Task: inverse folding
């Protein structure tokens, strides 16, 4: 049984996170993904731990490794005509062209959708942008921090009422966008297999932000207003709330159906007295006295450490979770049992762990163990495979100028 995308050739002209992450997922499914990088490599490649002040001598960028695993690397300066001609040859033989390059740059190099579709009618074009292909801001550069996080209301919603807007962690929106982009590309390839005609697949970070925040966004679209933010001191449902423990850690209750879980929670906490309390007798009573109940639960959870609560709550018929630090979460036995992490054997950095592909297939092991390529490691072989002569390869790589 071959890999799902065995024989599919992808040319990736992209940098940073979302589009390259989509390329990595396509490579996981067996596609031959050629990553085009500028001379010297993209900045993301050099995001080593020590750059962020962490005590580590790891010689690679861990995030770059995750989002570029399993690809081949070709270095081209596409401002040079010979390099651009080589890239065109490469695209001519590809099934998918994956990019997050801004529209005016693609047009300048003759790689906009109209030009590519005229050259290669079978080509599937996957485009990642900040704000989509239409509208006044279609050409505006963006990161997920701006288009996905700040512009969509997520940054404002993800906070307590009296707290400043939350700062997003790197790549959060990008990885969601990558999943959407891969889904669209797979659909386009399916159609192309039927009628022989490719198409353009567009994914916008702003749109992804609204989709990820779909529950609140759908509500806002109906009521034409911002939904109420969560306030842990007076939550809508005290059984769906976070509480501090004795040692300053946090525990999260997620019993959205408070009617079903009210008695089991009280019995688990040893607070059977609350069951008979008229203030909390039913859903609406608990909602009316939410602040009082939240205060009582806060006092209760403050009596034990997080570890003590974990021991007490484990296996009980309630829904809860400890709020882990990331340093703790990477050691979670369940995450490891589910295959969330993958070992990589890197030729220079040695053996290390990374985040595994987020999809498991029963008939195809997702190949997340392959490292990202060294910069330009496959330049000559990729161009040779595309049918370029030795002289054309030298010209594309700028070797003629160095002679």
Result:
């Amino acid at each position: 049984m071959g890999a799902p995308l065995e024989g599919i050739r992808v040319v990736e002209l992209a940098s940073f996170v979302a589009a390259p992450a989509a390329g990595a997922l396509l490579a996981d499914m067996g596609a031959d993904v050629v990553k085009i990088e500028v001379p010297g490599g993209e900045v993301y490649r050099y995001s080593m731990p020590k750059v962020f002040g962490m005590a580590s001598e790891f010689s690679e960028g861990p995030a770059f490794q995750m989002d570029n695993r399993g690809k081949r690397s070709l270095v081209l300066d596409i401002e040079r005509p010979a390099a651009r001609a080589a890239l065109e040859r490469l695209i001519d033989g590809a099934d998918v062209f994956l990019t997050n390059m801004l529209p005016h740059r693609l047009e300048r190099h003759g790689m906009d959708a109209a030009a590519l579709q005229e050259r290669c009618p079978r080509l599937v074009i996957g485009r990642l942008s900040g704000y989509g292909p239409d509208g006044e801001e279609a050409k505006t550069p963006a990161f997920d921090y701006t288009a996905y996080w700040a512009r969509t209301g997520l940054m404002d919603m993800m906070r307590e009422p009296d707290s400043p807007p939350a700062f997003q962690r790197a790549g959060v929106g990008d990885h969601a966008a990558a999943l959407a982009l891969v889904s669209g590309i797979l659909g386009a390839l399916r159609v192309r297999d039927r009628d022989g005609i490719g198409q353009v697949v567009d994914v916008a970070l702003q749109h992804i932000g609204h989709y990820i925040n779909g529950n609140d966004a759908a509500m806002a679209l109906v009521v034409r207003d911002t939904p109420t933010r969560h306030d842990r001191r007076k939550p809508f449902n005290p059984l769906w709330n976070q509480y501090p423990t004795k040692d300053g850690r946090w525990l999260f209750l997620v019993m959205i159906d408070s009617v079903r879980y009210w008695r089991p929670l009280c019995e688990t906490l040893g607070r059977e007295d609350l069951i008979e309390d008229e203030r909390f007798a039913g859903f609406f009573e608990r909602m009316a006295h939410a602040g009082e109940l939240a205060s009582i639960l806060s006092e209760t959870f403050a009596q034990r450490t997080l570890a003590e609560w974990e021991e007490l709550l484990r296996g009980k018929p309630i829904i809860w979770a400890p709020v882990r630090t990331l340093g703790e979460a990477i050691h979670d036995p369940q995450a490891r049992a589910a295959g969330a992490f993958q070992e990589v054997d890197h030729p220079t950095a040695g053996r290390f762990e990374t985040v595994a592909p987020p999809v498991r297939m029963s008939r195809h092991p997702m190949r997340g163990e392959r490292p990202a390529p060294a910069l330009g490691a496959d330049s000559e072989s990729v161009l040779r495979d595309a049918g370029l002569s030795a002289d054309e390869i030298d010209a594309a790589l700028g070797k003629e100028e160095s002679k």
Notes: The chain has two domains: 9-212+333-402, 240-244+250-322. Residues 9-212+333-402 form a domain with the Rossmann fold fold (CATH 3.40.50.10540). The two ends are 47 Å apart (CA to CA). The longest helix spans residues 172-195.
